[in-house]
Amino acid sequence: MPSDARMLIAIRVVVVTTLLLAALIIQYTVRELLPINYLYTTAAITYGLTLVYIGVGYAASRKINLIIQVAGDLVVETVLVYFTGGLDSPFSFLYLVSIITASMLLYRRGGILSASGAVILYGVLGDLMLYGVLPLPEQSWFIPTPWTSSRLYLNMATNFAGFYATALLTSYLSEKLQKTSEELDANRQNLAELRALNQNVVESIPSGLITLSPDGVATFINPAGCLLLRREAHAIIGRPIAQLGFYAEGEWDEFRHTLTGGSVIRREKHDVAIGDELRTIGFAVTPLNTIEGAASGYTLIFQDLTDMKTLEAELRLKDRMAAVGELSAGIAHEIRNPLAAIAGSVQVLKKSTALNPQEQRLMSIILKESERLNKSIADFLRFVKPQEKRPAEFDIAASLAETLDLLRNSPELTATHTIEDEIVPPSYTIVGDSDQIRQVFWNIARNAVQAMPNGGTLRVTTAPAADHYNITFSDNGRGMNDADQRRLFQPFRTNFPTGTGLGMAISYRIVQEHGGRIEVVSHENAGTSITVSLPSSAATMRNAVA
After folding, report:
1. Is 510 exposed, middle or buried (0-12, 13-18, 19+ CB in 10 A)?
2. Which of 110, 342, 403, 465 has the fewest CB atoms within 10 Å of its CB?
3. What single-letter DSSP state applies at residue 240?
4. What is the full DSSP assignment across 89-111?
5. Residue 483 DSSP label
C-alpha cells in the first residue's frame, strides 16, 4: 500500500476516534442538552469503510485506492451534514477537506472530480430535504428553518463556487509544489553526483592535496596525501602548516602576502622527515576562493620527488661520465706513451753507479709515481673503454664468498677489521659476466674497509628477490655527507688519499650495463650501506647487454 494512502487512513482513524471519545464524554455529561447518538453511527460507517480501504489498498493501485477513499469521505461527510441539520449544518466545510486532499494527492483532475462529487451529493441532499422527500432527523443540533428555493439555490451556488475554487487553487499549488519537488530532487541528484565525482577525483589523484584555512591550518587531506606523508588524516587536520614540515613559522607568514596577490608559490624541500626516511618533497600553494570569488583559504598540492631526483642524478652522472670518457680517452693514450718512455729512461739511469744515494732515492720516487700514474691511466681506460661482456650463468653467491676470502687475506685488512657475511642461500645462479661482477664486489668491499681507518666491521648480506639478487655491504665507518654521496660514482672523485676515484665509477658502470642498480644509504659518522641489485633472469641480462 502506498505511504500516502496509509497516512490518509491513519489520519482518518485518529480524527474519528477523537470525535468518538469526545462524543462519549458529552454523552455522559450533557446528554439532555446535546443529542449525539448519530455520531456513533457515523463513526461505525467510517471504521467499516476503513477496513474496505485497507483491503483495496493491497489489491488496487495507489490512484484507485485514493479515489475510493475520497469518495467514501464525501459520503460520510454527506451523512454527517444530514444528521446535523442538512442545509443549516456547520459541517459542510468538511467537503473542502476532501477536495483539498484530492487536489494535493491526485492533482487537478482529482480535485475537480472531488469537487464535482461534493456538488452532486450536497445538491441532491438539499433538494431532497427542501421538497420533503428526506425528512430532517429528530436528533438535529439545530431547529429547522424554512428554506425557499431561491435561498437554496443561492446557498448551493455559493458552496459550489467555493468547492471548485478550492479544487482549482489547491491543485495549482499542488502541481507547482510537485514540479518544484521534482526539480529539487533532480538538482539534489545532480549535486550528489557532482559531489561524488569531485570526491572521486580528489581521492584518485596521485598527488597529495591539503586544503588550508586562511590562518594556514589544515582542513582536509586526500588519501594520496596521507600515503605520501605516512600519517593518518586526523594527525594532519587541525594542525598549522608550519607543523607539517613544508614551511617554517616565519616563512609561511612571509609567503601569505605573496599568495594574497593571487600568485602561485612552488618550492622543493629536501630532507623532509617522513617516517624513518628523509625525502624530497615538491609542493605548490595557491589561493582557494569561493564561487563568489571571496578568499576562503589555500590549497597545497605536493609530490614525493625523491625517486625523480635520484633518476635525475643518475642521468647527470651518465652524461658526465660519457663526456669525460669521450674527452679523456685520447688524452690518456697520449700520456701513457711518453710515460712509458720516461719510466724506461729512469730505470736505465737508476742503474748508473755514478748516482749518489740522494739521486738514487729521487729516481725511485720517479719510478714509483710513474707506476702509480700508469695504474691510474689503466683504470681510467678500463672505465672509458670497458672490456667486452661475456654473459654466462655463474654462481654469484660462490663468487661473492671467494671475493670476501681474498679480502680477508689482503694486507689492507688489519687486525682491527672484521668481515661478517650472511650469504643465503650459499649457491645462487644468475646470468652475467662473472669477472666484472667480482670486480664490483672487490671495489665496494675495499672502499668499505678504507672507510674504517680505525677498524670496524664490514657486514655483507644477500637477499634473493623475485627477479633480482640483492647484495648489501654495510660498514660502521665514517660515513658520507650529502655532497660526498652525490659524487661517489663520479670519476676521479675520491675520499681516500691513495684512491684514483675510478673504482666506484667502474662498479657503477658495470652494474648499469648488467641491468642492475646501486643504492647508497649513508650518514656522516654513522657508516654506509651500499646495495647492489642484479637481475637474476637471463632475459633481463640479454636486454641490458643489447
Report:
1. buried
2. 465
3. B
4. -GGGGHHHHHHHHHHHHHHHHHH
5. H
Give the strand pairing for 208-212 and 295-304: antiparallel
Pick from 488, 485, 471: which is nearest to 523 by CA? Answer: 485
- Contact yes or no for 444/483 (Cβ under 8 A): no
Question: Block means of pLDDT (10 residues each) for the chain, length 546 residues?
Answer: 73 79 70 61 80 76 82 85 77 84 86 89 85 70 66 84 88 87 87 80 80 86 85 86 75 73 76 78 84 79 83 72 62 70 78 76 81 73 63 91 88 86 91 89 90 90 89 92 80 65 81 89 90 75 44
Tracing cell 480524527 back to the chain, one arrives at: 15
CATH label, 392-545, candidates 1.10.3210.10, 3.30.450.40, 3.30.565.10, 3.40.630.30: 3.30.565.10
Is the distance from CB of 469 to CB of 537 less than 8 angstroms?
no
Q: How far is CA 269 from CA 279, 284, 303, 311, 313, in A?
A: 8, 11, 11, 17, 16
Cβ burial, residue 330 (10 Å; 0-12/13-18/19+): exposed
Q: Which three cell numbers stand for residue 499?
A: 684512491
